Amino acid sequence: MSSKTTNPIMYSAAWRISLWATLAFAIGTMFVFAMLHRFVANDIQRRSDAWLSGEVAVLADVAGRTPKDRLYGRVVGEVAELASREVPDKLRSNSNENDSVFFLQAGDDGTLKLWVGAGDGVPNLAAIRARKFISDVPYDLNVKGFNHPFRIASVRLDDGSHIYLGLSERDELRVLRNLRYRFFCLWLLIVLFGSVIVFFVTRRMLGYVREITEAASRIGQSDLSSRVPISKRNDEVGHLALTLNRMLDRIESSMHQLHTITEALAHDLRSPLTAIRGKLEIVLAGDLKMEQSEPIVSAIDELDRLTEFLNASLDVAEAKADALRLSLSEVDLDRTIRAMIDLYEPCMSEKGLRMNLHSAGPVFIAADAALLHRVIANLLDNELNHLPASCTVSIKLGTSEDAAMLIVEDDGPGFASEIGLHMFEQRVKGRDSKGHGLGLTFVEAVVRAHGGSVTASNRSEGGALLSISWPRETGEEIEAPHSPTHLNR
Amino acid sequence: MRLLLVEDEPEIQSFVKQSLVEAGYEVDTAESGNAAIQLASQYAYHGLIIDLGLPDQDGIDLILQLRGSGISSPVLILSARRSVDDRVKGLEQGGDDYLTKPFAVAELLARLRNLLRRNLATSEEATRLRVLDLELDFISRRASRGGEVLNLSPQEFVLLAYLCRHAGRVVTRSMLLSEVWGMRIQPNTNVVDVHVYRLRGKVDTEGHEPLIKTLRGIGYVLKDH
Q: Which residues carry this modification: 4-aspartylphosphate (chain B) (predicted)?
């Protein structure tokens, strides 16, 4: 599938869709996790606070009732029991169990009265005293020398001293960190996996769409009888293919009908015309006097004009309906025009017209050679029929990035203003024109059938200008640039 | 020379046959593809004229069938179809030239002569050609009349050469366009006439007998006697 894309993957719709989908999914899941994380953290905090408050009350009670000399022993026992019972994470092995809980009694003068815990309790007391206010609800406290903050609950004893019970938040934080770490790993995995799935699914889907587009454009260019590929699934893309194919069926059938009609019309008109012309010619070949042959000759002339008109009308009808059957080949526009100029130049100079060509060398286009000849012949016939003597016809051939530009201009009277916008419509012609009014229509229709365009205008300095843009074969290298030639006749 | 005319329209068949007979050919006629195949297997024809729209089969198929059974005589296709690809198909599949209806009898005869001659004689391409006192040298690409070199442009030389090769026979404008300029177009201006007129100005100078004659409504002929 990807071999057909010429665009880098970054520009594909599948890439953009999966990028946005991934972004939305990632942000969404992250947000949900943040809410859950907050809920869990709060809940753990609330539970440990309740426990701390309960324990500190018990310890206050113990401190109140126990004599001072035995207090230390009691408290050590209590704290050890607390530490062993309440520390949840049994995995930790490298740290001292005793540093997870401390008990501290401070006198109202700020001296350390009783300390149970790791170390000498001085930094703990300093940290507690550094806090400006004393609160009844548990709070966080960072102590110098410890990596993790403590959750502190305090109570005031009757003798004015305070007792503090501190529980390290290490385990709580570790649980939360583990939670975050695991979530992040899983989240990354899911996001990656999801985006890959989204990318491939959309690419597959859009691949069908692209196949349909490619097939449709191929059909539009050449072969009306083929159809876009149909996927078996009954989804939007399947419907698109079916709809396109139904449309193509109708187009093909009306095109076919048009061909049949023009074919039949051509045939039915041509056979009698052939017979009439043949009979007239046979009469003419007999021994006739001059005045007898004259009407027959003019009848043959009329027949030929009729035939020409019939051909031109049918050609224009087909070309207008985009039903021309093109047999494309590579044509050098420059050479074709030079040959045409060779053909037309004597006739032009006979009428007192000059022709010149500006061309920078070969220009290769994909064209139906016979139709191209007729297009150029039509343009030059037009000039011959409409220009007064001593005018100049300039033909300029140039190229742009993807098109060959053919400009035919003259310094004659220009297009009649009443023709205006209807230049390329059938049977529209200047007041003095002797033609059928089909020439430019045919030119425009043929050029359009090749994917090009024609514009006609009057030059500001006087005279008509016809500009044809003919798509160039892509990837066609132009031969070594010739020095611009200026062909004056 | 014996020709087979395959055409189902009686009107057209009759006048084409009459013209061919008057031009000195022996002509057999067939109204259908089957009849044509029967006749062609019985007699050896020098040339065939085949209409593409036959009642029982397509003219192209008929040509294919004839070629398949070893008949290699030149074929002139008559067609009321217009599209180029049909004509080209006809040519590629063994037809040698084609004419679209309606056609001028003179054109038919001219093309037919051309075809028959092409088939009979000659791959020996002459390097020199003489028609009366007109002499063409294809190597130096010069023409002279009565010993006097004619000052011709390359295009005019090609045109004169074509007329000389067909000396004594009618050459139509569309033949000139397709053979000399390589284009199948029908200009509604007298572009070809002006070329011939100019050529005539150089070839038929004063003191010489005029060689290039215009046949009104038909074309040109270069006198050879």
A: 51
Beta carbons within 8 Å of A138's beta carbon, 6+ residues apart: A48, A49, A52, A53, A151, A152, A153
Distance CA A87, CA A149 (A): 15
Query: Which one-letter amino acid corresponds to residue A432?
Result: D
Cross-chain residue pair A281–B105, CB shorter than 8 Å: yes
β partners of residue A102: A166
Distance CA B129, CA A258 (A): 51
Cis peptide before A272 (omega within 30 of 0): no
Rg (CA), chain B: 19
Split at pLDDT 50, 70, 90, the class of A7 is: low
Separation between Cα atoms, residue B26 and residue A371, nearest integer Å: 38
Residues of B in contact with A346 (CB under 8 A): 191, 194-195, 198
Model pLDDT for residues B16-54, shown as the tens digit of each residue: 998 899 888 999 999 999 999 999 988 889 899 998 888
Q: What's the mean pLDDT when you consider all of chain A?
A: 80
**Length reported for chain A:** 489
* Residues B150, B155, B156, B159, CA torsion sign: positive
Dist CA B100 CA B52 (whole Å): 10
CB distance A274–B102 less than 8 Å?
yes
Q: Closest by alpha carbon to A4, among A206, A142, A210, A187?
A: A210
ipTM value, please give it: 0.75
Give the pLDDT confidence score for residue A4 in this predicted structure.
43
More confident residue, B43 or B122: B43
pLDDT band for position A53 (50/70/90)? confident
Above 60 in pLDDT, residue A488?
no
Residue owning tokens 């007792």: A163
The region of weakest confidence among A222-226, A343-347, B65-69, B196-200 is A222-226
Q: Å from B102 to nearest chain A CA?
A: 4
Q: Do A275 and B11 touch (CB under 8 A)?
A: yes
Provide the chain A residues 317-376 that lie in CB contact (below 8 A) with chain B.
325, 327, 339-340, 342-344, 346-347, 350, 368, 370-371, 373-374
pLDDT of A483 higher than 50 = no
d(CA A79, CA A112): 17
